[in-house]
Amino acid sequence: MEIHSFFWAVFIAIVVIVFAIDFVVANKQTGTVKIKTALLWTWIWIVTGLAFGALIHYMLPDGNEKSLDYIMGYLTEKSLSVDNLFVFIIIFTSMGVEEKNRPRLLKLGIMLSIFLRILFIFAGTALLEKYHFVIDIFGVILFYTAIKMALSKEDDKIDPEKNVFYKIASKLFRIDNDPFHHRFFIVKNKKIYITHMFLVFLVIGTTDVIFAFDSLPAIFGITKDPFVVITSNVFAVLGLSSLYFALQGIMGLFRYLKSGVIVILFFISIKMLISGWYEIPKLISLLVIVLALTVSILLSVIIKEKPKK
Q: Does the residue 129 lie in any domain?
């Protein structure tokens, strides 16, 4: 088997196995996942993702270059994904989703996120191959995203009812707002109703579109290799459901993660915009990403959170 085909086969096999395990665990889950269990599974997925990068380094002919791109892409997308999970926590809380329904919604949301990312990656690759100036457009989008994140306040609230698709669904369908339903559709008096669960998934799905669109310029600012782009993205998203439950217990360790993500986005956007004149060495890029994440987590640990009034 040709080496690249072998890596694609390994990648697909790992993704299928991970989702199979995740869905079995989710179906058996009846309450909140314990923090220790969530952290254990989170580390398993992180180690799996990094191990795949090590395989790239040692087994691919151009593994030195590709593994650096993979690690940078993985760390960037992972940090973005963690930041996005905070939004999921707010959505679940504000929409009153029961704990027992959250694992299933997370799995479906992650599957949708992976599908959208791969779709956007193929579209972005096709555009970059045909129009090189698109890299500058991606750079501007990423720069704008970083500014938007920097200006947003921590106490900004998300109102799901202002979601466009939420409003459309509310007008087109009969709604059963009982939060205890675990199905998307129910039949009452021979009439079909959409449930509260369906509305939550609709909000998560449309939020995923925004996340996928934001992550596209970030990864293309690191590499344009479809194999590295797809694998680093998907591995970064895998295991997010476990990380979600871990975050609920250790959110204090990530209070300044948003600042680290903003620094990374600013750096990658500048890297893209000056790529026509100067190519920043990959080792320096990796160092900037690792330092931004490390410093943000260290600051979260060192600086004590002020008590809320």
A: yes
Give yes or no for residue 257 having a pLDDT over 80. Answer: no
Neighbours of 261 (CB within 10 A): 24
CA dist 245 and 110 (Å) reads 14
| In contact, 53 and 70? CB cutoff 8 Å | yes
Domain containing 137 equals 3-152+213-302
Phi then psi for residue 198, to 5 deg, are -65, -40
Across residues 11-38, what is the average pLDDT?
69
For the chain, how many structural domains are there in total?
1
Stretch 77-99: mean pLDDT, rounded?
Answer: 75
**Residue 26 counted as domain residue:** yes
Spatial contact of 174 and 193, defined as CB atoms under 8 Å apart: yes
Residue 201 φ/ψ region, left for φ over 0, alpha for ψ in the -120 to 50 degree band, beta for the rest: alpha
For residue 121, tell me if it sits in a domain.
yes
Phi, psi dihedral angles at 84 (to 5 degrees): -65, -30
Half-sphere exposure of 91 (CA within 13 A, CB side): 27
